[in-house]
Specification:
By secondary structure, the protein is mainly alpha-helical. The chain is built from four helices and two strands, in the order H-E-H-E-H-H. A two-stranded parallel sheet has the order 1-2. The radius of gyration is 27 Å and the shape is elongated.
């Protein structure tokens, strides 16, 4: 569950950019091989995107892409948690006193 929360929180800026693209406030600048990035004065706020085919991502795809990764982060979080619990069980030391029972006259 913690991995999903982190994945969602880190995806919030990307989803915000997608919403701004949907509203028309921001657009995507597509760069291909050999292209030089433009300056802020030339295009204002823009999502710079590199594509060999020079295809711009759709705004809805930018919003939904981080949400599509939530399932993957849940799986990796579950695998990591299970592995951590297994390692902790194997490395656990037996809990008990280092000395024997003093009523029997035997000490540690």
């Amino acid at each position: 569950m913690g991995a999903m929360k982190v994945c969602f929180i880190t995806g919030l800026p990307i989803m915000t950019v997608g919403v701004l693209m949907l509203l028309g406030v921001m657009h995507a600048t597509v760069l291909g091989p050999g292209d030089v990035p433009t300056t802020f004065r030339e295009h204002g706020f823009a999502l710079t995107y590199y594509s060999e085919l020079r295809q711009s991502p759709g705004p809805l795809a930018v919003v939904l892409a981080p949400l599509a990764r939530l399932g993957e982060s849940w799986i990796w979080g579950a695998v990591g948690g299970s592995l951590g619990r297994t390692i902790a069980r194997r490395c656990a030391r037996p809990r008990g006193r280092a000395t024997a029972d003093p009523s029997r006259g035997v000490t540690g």
